[in-house]
Please model this.
Amino acid sequence: MSVSHEPAGVPALNLKAQYQSIRDEIETVVLNLLESQMFVLGPEVAGLEAEVAAYCGAGHGVGCASGSDALLLPLMAMDVGPGDEVITTPYTFFATAGAIWRTGARPVFVDIEPDTFNIDPHLIEAAITGRTRAIIPVHLYGQAADMDPIRELAASRGIAVVEDAAQAIGAAYRGVRAGTLGDAAAFSFYPSKNLGGFGDGGMMTTDDPALARRLARLRVHGMEPRYHHHEVGFNSRLDALQAAVLRVKLRHLDAWTALRREVADRYRSLFASHGLEEVVAVPHERPGNYHVYNQFVIRVPAVLRDGLREMLATRKIGTDVYYPIPLHLQTCFESLGHRPGDFPHAEAAARETIALPMYPELTEVEQRHVVGSIRQFLAGYASSSMTTDRAA
Ligand SMILES: *Cc1c(COP(=O)(O)O)cnc(C)c1O
Model:
């Protein structure tokens, strides 16, 4: 491989490049907002709610302070609480299980599919009890979970489905966008998400008008109208500043998603052209899924993973591990009584995955540098002696 202009480094995420490309549009709406001095909820938030709902094809959008709250509020609105159980995956960001715990309910984990990293629908039925109130599938890295069997099972047992779509705005499953694949969905506008604000923010979508109204009430201390409190909620309002910025960015989202998908295709062909498929498993995009690549996550044999990351770091190539400790093994969930080995696919993923640099503006030169560096690192190892969980 000949690289004429080797980049000085490749960050895992490059928010400055995105900002540069829309700076004028952003400055206009931010300055308008400063003139209005209306900082919390208000018309910008209502506008974003309508636009995100329309984008997903959902009846209603309700803004809130974070993706974490966007998971907690629907559970509260469904009256999930102590004595209840909620099924989810152990291989996700902490907030998914944290929201369940905060209601007083018990998180019940179900292992993942080794190829998509999403909850394995075939293992869910065995985890259902008389106390199961909801299932939270996570569309991890931007690829929808296998929703049809999950919804069928949930419907037959009278269990709610709340999508954790924090990483998956714009993703589709059999032609239907995330946000309309369950009873309610949670989105995050954390800056690293595909639609990222200038701070924290979140959104819930649902087709159920009564649920939407209750969510909108719960995010303002259960208040409706002013100073009349029907139930105890909390403060989870969305800032107008975030909404104004996000409305600008939403207009670019499909173009950015298309670029993310091109970046993913380029990674795939680069790994293939280097003959690395034996050692490096690239993401599997399941037929029927439209993956939006919030992350491009490869798997390598566990013995090589950390060494490879260190070597890439010396070349200023940014990588991350989402997530190094599966949730059933977190200290705060010790009382659930789990042990290593309980969810072998999640545990293997935690040892073998690396998220490579991924953002719409990533260039082919940068990608060649990333893949070329990985090839150099792996050149010294015999692939035959190394396996990942991919074929399990
Ligand atoms: C980011 C994320 C969340 C939480 O969103 P915040 O806005 O950071 O609170 C929840 N679940 C998943 C899968 C996420 O990636």
User: Anything to note?
Assistant: The chain has eleven helices and twelve strands. Residues 253-391 form a domain with the Aspartate Aminotransferase, domain 1 fold (CATH 3.90.1150.10).
